[in-house]
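step=encode ok
step=design start
structure_in=
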């Protein structure tokens, strides 16, 4: 008896519907069934990548503080600027107190006395504040680091406190003639032109701070003292 012809990969089997063809087609059907049962892996696009959790790197104030401690050029300049501005604010107190014994009509002698008081007060306050901030930047560890570069910095032994801070102060001392010439001469000039003693103080010392920060930073980068 002649076998019924195969149509479309199936054998015509009258009365029983199409039967699967033996051999390759049956194995293909089993393979297709197994493939359908296997879980499909989704390909992630760059937009599906999960961002780093803030819990693994800490909040922004914490990261900024660790950056301030890790980067030498940042903490040296930030400490000196903060010490300078803090000293200016504190120096306003003795300068304002000169009104108790120096009247509003200033003579050249009065201007020199006020300028001298401002210079000595600023120097004492500035040095004191800087030593405190230098300790905070290099020796105080209130935050436990989470990122590798911060951990490496915290595990590294810091330089000796007084030696390192005094070296920075020595560099500043070499620049102090420029600082006080700019600050006091500008202050004295403004006093002679009738400006209030507080205004003359702030303008003179802030200008001197900007000038010496530029010079000191360039010097520190050149010598390597402000490199990590």
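sequence_out=
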């Amino acid at each position: 008896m002649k076998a019924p012809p195969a149509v479309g990969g199936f054998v015509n089997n009258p009365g029983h519907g199409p039967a699967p063809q033996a051999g390759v087609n049956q194995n293909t059907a089993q393979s297709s069934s197994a493939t359908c049962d296997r879980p499909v892996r989704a390909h992630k696009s760059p937009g599906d990548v999960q961002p780093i959790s803030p819990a693994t790197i800490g909040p922004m104030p914490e990261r900024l503080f660790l950056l301030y401690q890790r980067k030498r050029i940042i903490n040296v300049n930030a400490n000196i600027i903060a010490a300078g501005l803090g000293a200016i604010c504190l120096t306003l107190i003795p300068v304002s107190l000169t009104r108790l014994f120096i009247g509003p009509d200033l003579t050249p002698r009065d201007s020199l006395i006020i300028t001298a008081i401002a210079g000595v007060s600023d120097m004492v306050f500035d040095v004191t504040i800087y030593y405190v901030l230098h300790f905070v930047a290099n020796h105080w560890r209130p935050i436990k680091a989470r990122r590798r570069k911060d951990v490496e910095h915290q595990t590294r032994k810091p330089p000796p406190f007084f030696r390192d801070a005094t070296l920075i102060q020595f560099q500043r001392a070499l620049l102090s003639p420029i600082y006080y010439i700019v600050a006091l001469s500008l202050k004295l000039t403004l006093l002679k032109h009738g400006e209030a003693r507080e205004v003359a103080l702030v303008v003179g010392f802030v200008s001197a701070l900007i000038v010496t920060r530029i010079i000191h930073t360039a010097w520190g980068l050149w010598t390597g003292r402000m490199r990590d």
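step=design ok
step=annotate ok -> The chain has one domain: 59-223.
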